[in-house]
Specification:
Keywords: DNA-binding
Radius of gyration: 24 Å
Pfam family, one: TetR_C_24
GO molecular function: DNA-binding transcription factor activity; transcription cis-regulatory region binding
CATH architecture of one domain: Orthogonal Bundle
Helix content: over 70%
Structural class: mainly alpha
Number of strands: 0
CATH superfamily of one domain: Tetracycline Repressor, domain 2
Protein name: HTH tetR-type domain-containing protein
Number of helices: 9
Strand content: under 5%
Largest sheet: none
Length: 212
């Protein structure tokens, strides 16, 4: 009987282990996808299943990185609001005197909110979980700090009269957010038509509040 000899055995390929870099990249991908869905459909549209589907991963994998939707979107909120605060701060730093810096900061805030309408509405007005609401409050404080610094600068140079910068800045942020809620709402159809009017009215109101 002829014996057939096999000179080689099948080679088993080792699975590549997941590195820390892989995990970091996947985590960032989840955040980016969540941010994109938030920008187009708000918190309601950005479900964990939708995020997993768009990221081409299992829903369970999303939960490995973020235990809940609130945890994920608290992180998204930090990322997005941090970017917006930096943009407003840069606008203020690039303008002088103080009243022009404040105008530039407000204009940048409103203009970016209008251009990113759906995202801005989600960040400003949509009902959210308590963990996300904490981030919303932190974001408002960060914006208020930018405004307060400008007001302090104006007081130091004598351009602005004595006032409490922190209270005034917080009031300005509250007023701006409230003024934008209705125009940014998905139900509003006249935003682009009244874009300049909305921006100019908000700026005029805010500047009148600090120039006494």
């Amino acid at each position: 009987m002829l014996e057939v000899r096999q000179d080689s055995k099948p080679v088993r390929r080792r699975k590549r282990s997941v590195t820390t870099e892989d995990q970091t990249i996947l985590r960032q991908t989840i955040i980016d996808v969540a941010r994109g869905l938030l920008a187009t459909g708000g918190f309601r549209a950005a479900t964990m299943k939708a995020i997993a589907r768009q990221a081409d991963i299992a829903t369970g994998t999303v939960y490995l990185y973020f235990p809940s939707k609130a945890d994920l979107f608290a992180e998204v909120f930090r990322v997005v609001s941090g970017r917006e605060v930096r943009a407003v701060a840069a606008a203020a730093e690039g303008a002088r005197p103080a009243i022009k810096a404040l105008e530039a900061a407000i204009r940048t805030f409103v203009d970016r909110a209008i251009r990113g309408r759906r995202m801005a509405y989600a960040l400003i007005a949509e009902p959210v979980d308590p963990a996300i609401e904490v981030e919303r409050l932190m974001s408002r404080r960060a914006f208020a700090q930018v405004f307060a610094d400008v007001i302090r600068s104006g007081m130091a140079t004598g351009e602005l009269s004595s006032q409490n910068p922190d209270i005034v800045a917080a009031a300005l942020i509250g007023a701006i957010n409230e003024a934008l809620v209705r125009p940014l709402s998905p139900a509003s159809e006249a935003l682009e038509e009244h874009r300049e009017e909305i921006m100019n009215e908000i700026i005029s109101f805010c500047l009148a509040a600090v120039v006494r």
